[in-house]
Amino acid sequence: MLKSTALPKPVLRILAIGILTGVMACAPIYRNHGYVPTPEELAELQVGVDTRDSVVEAVGTPSSSGVLQDSGYYYVTTRFRHYGARQPEIVSRELVAIRFDQRGVVRNIERYGLDHGRVVALERRVTDSSIEDKTFLRQLLGNIGSFNPGNLLE
Fold first, then answer.
1. Phi-psi domain of 10 (left: phi exceeds 0; alpha: psi -120 through 50; beta: other)
2. C-beta separation of 96 from 110 below 8 A
3. Residue 2: C-alpha distances to residues 5, 6, 12, 29, 144 (Å)
4. Alpha-carbon distance 61 to 55, whole Å?
5. Which residue in 61, 54, 66, 71 sits closest to 36, CA to CA?
6. Would you say 126 and 101 are in contact if contact means Cβ atoms under 8 Å apart?
7. 44-84 pLDDT tens trace
8. N or C: which end of the chain has fewer CB within 10 A?
């Protein structure tokens, strides 16, 4: 009599679950960050007529605004693709800039995509401290000569 080489059902289930999990882990996952008004919402805005308040009412609060008071509102959305253990990749980015004049009236509405931008490498700069090699006691004793009791009385 020949022995069957088929695997038992519990082992087959575990293998099937493992293979299914492995295939699902390799499927790309997309995530969206931010908000950009639709073209229909932007069409409702009128250059030279709408103000900062009416823009917020019509299309919502901006993702960020300019540093200067008379600059603009910026709506930004980014779509990332996560694929397995790799670092997330930016698939698309869209920016809508609504600029205002000094009176707070809409001056211009611009739309930019990822193809309009350029990659900017960020640098992390650390300022070196001159007290790195000094111990606490050395710093404390070094300040004794610069102490002036007359400054306390004034």
1. alpha
2. yes
3. 9, 12, 21, 48, 95
4. 8
5. 61
6. no
7. 999 889 998 999 999 988 877 766 565 788 898 889 998 77
8. N
The phi, psi pair for 85, rounded to 5°, reads -90, 5
The predicted-structure confidence for 2-23, as pLDDT tens digits, reads as follows 565 677 788 888 888 888 777 6
Three-class DSSP category at 138 = helix
DSSP for 54-68, written as a single string: HHHHHH---SEE-SS
Query: Which residues lie across from 90 on neighbouring strands?
Result: 80
98 neighbors 106 (Cβ within 8 angstroms): yes
What residue has token string 């253990």?
85
Question: Contact 78/33 with Cβ under 8 angstroms?
Answer: yes
With tokens 């038992």, the residue in question is 8
In terms of pTM, does the model score above 0.70? no
Cα–Cα distance for residue pair 79/76, rounded to 1 Å: 10
Query: Could you count the other beta carbons within 10 Å of the beta carbon of residue 61?
Result: 10
CA 123 to chain CA centroid, nearest Å: 16
Cβ contacts of 110 within 8 Å, gap of 6 or more: 96, 97, 99
Taking the C-alpha atoms of residue 122 and residue 124, their distance in angstroms, rounded to an integer, is 7
| Strand intervals (E) in the chain | 29-34, 64-65, 72-82, 89-100, 106-113
